Amino acid sequence: MMQRFLETSPRIPSTRLELLNHCTPSVLRSIRLLTTLACAVVFFGAPATTPTAHAADSITYPANLRSGGGGGRHLVFLTGDEEYRGEEGLPMLAKLLSVRHGFRCTVLFPLDPDGTINPDNAASLAGSEALESADGLVMMLRFRRWPDAVMQRFADAVDRGIPIIALRTSTHAFRFPEKAPTAFRAFNTFGRDVLGEGWVSHWGPNRQGATLSVVEAVNARHPILRGVGPILADSGVYEAHPVADATILLRGQVLSGMNVSAPPATFAKVRASDGVSQPVNEPMMPVAWFRERAREGGKPQRIVCTTLGAASDLTDEDLRRLVINSVYWSFGLFIPGRADARVVDPYAPTPYRFGGYLRGVRPADHAIGHKLPSATPAASGPTP
Questions:
Q1: Does residue 372 lie within any of the structural domains?
Q2: For position 380, what pLDDT does the model report?
Q3: Distance CA 341, CA 308 (A)
Q4: pTM for this structure?
Q5: What is the percentage of the chain residues whose pLDDT exceeds 90?
Q6: Which of 166, 157, 154, 167 is nearest to 135 (CA)?
Q7: What is the pLDDT of residue 372?
Q8: Are 318 and 228 in contact (CB under 8 A)?
Q9: Which of 150, 189, 194, 343 lies 20 to 30 Å (CA to CA) from residue 40?
Q10: Whether 79 contacts 88, CB under 8 Å
Q11: Choice between 291 and 8, residue whose per-residue pLDDT is larger
């Protein structure tokens, strides 16, 4: 009986070739497609990572662990300045550091109640819980006055000694009024106390004299400067006199016009710090420095600060590379000879000015592959 069953039952194919001979044409097509996709993954690697929203009030770009040296470390980007369009520049940097350098990057924004980004809302930083898992901070803030719960998360992150990369107006990140009900008024001097300098004055005129970086010769071989060429920024130089333990990397030459061919400016200017007049470029003001800030009972905290960093400045590849190198150095990672500073998506930031932010934009609109809406008319003003 068993022998007859075996002889009359359909035989199960014993080889791959026999199996294929039993397949219908549609099944064969499916097998060929799956085989092609599998080979592509093996040869080229898995598809590139895509951004996933950490929450409706922030955006996170997962680490592309096949690229760079980030190893999945979590960088939290803090946006919130009224003028220099950090809410556009920092998402671009976050995409770059996640896709090309292997960092997991979360970008936080000031939001209005309807969930849209409003950098003029100085009391808001949505999604601040992300600070609790931050391995490092990249910040561009100006005169913030966050609620105590948010400030506590920020203060705890700073106290953990995690690396900080600070751009432009972060030297004057907080301004709590004298009678404001806060336990964090001491953070009004965060710039000087932690980053190495606070707000002093405008030195080069915005939109009239561009900034050209000049390497501090004694530190020209520092790894943060590896592969970094001259930077041309369209935001003006700030007056800055960093603390004694800061190491100056770059100074800013004030130009007499807005392109690299413009000659250096020659006018004199009175320093706000001491009331002394000097030629504006003699000496030139520092525009990038680092600190290894001493901490009780812990390793020194690595901090890099640059007074460059308007969104329009970040169209300069060498400034982007300076930021990338600063992140690597702050974690003690090897800095490549020429770090990949290519933007992930086309980048055409809104010109900086007060009131000039894009209305109606939500964090999810900064997803990889998305295009931001056009700018609305903007006001301008002379404040720092």
A1: no
A2: 47
A3: 17
A4: 0.85
A5: 80
A6: 157
A7: 82
A8: yes
A9: 343
A10: no
A11: 291
Rounded distance between C-alpha atoms, residue 70 and residue 327, angstroms:
9
Residue 21 has a CB neighbour count (10 Å cut-off) of: 10
Q: Are 139 and 305 in contact (CB under 8 A)?
A: no
The stretches of 67-145 forming alpha helices (DSSP H) are: 86-99
Question: Which parts of 140-216 fold into alpha helices (H)?
Answer: 148-159, 190
Is residue 272, in this structure, part of any structural domain at all? no
The H or E element spanning position 321 is: helix 317-330
CA distances from 110 to 123, 311, 348, 358 (A): 8, 17, 21, 13
Domain that holds residue 159: 58-201+287-366
Residues facing residue 125 across a β-bridge = none
Q: Residue 222 in contact with residue 248, Cβ under 8 Å? A: no
pLDDT at 51: 45
Strands (E) across the chain are located at 52-55, 58-61, 74-80, 104-108, 136-141, 164-167, 201-202, 211-215, 232-233, 238-239, 247-254, 268-270, 277-279, 285-295, 298-306
Number of structural domains (the chain) is 1
pLDDT at 258 over 90: yes
CB 148 within 8 A of CB 123: no
Beta bridge partners of 76: 106, 137
Mean per-residue pLDDT over the chain, rounded: 87
68 closest CA partner among 47, 96, 92: 96
Query: What is the number of residues in the chain?
Result: 384
Decide: 340 and 200 in contact? Cβ < 8 Å.
no
Residue for token pair 């003699």: 282
Whether 60 shows a pLDDT value over 60: the answer reads yes
Residue pointed to by tokens 């070739």: 17
| Per-residue pLDDT, 298 | 85
For residue 381, being part of any structural domain is answered with: no
Question: Reduced to 3 states, what is the DSSP secondary structure of residue 255?
Answer: strand
Share of the chain above pLDDT 70, in %: 83
Strand partners of residue 141: 80
CA angle 360, 115, 184 (to 5 degrees): 120
Lookup: tokens for 328? 């690597």
In a domain, 2, yes or no: no
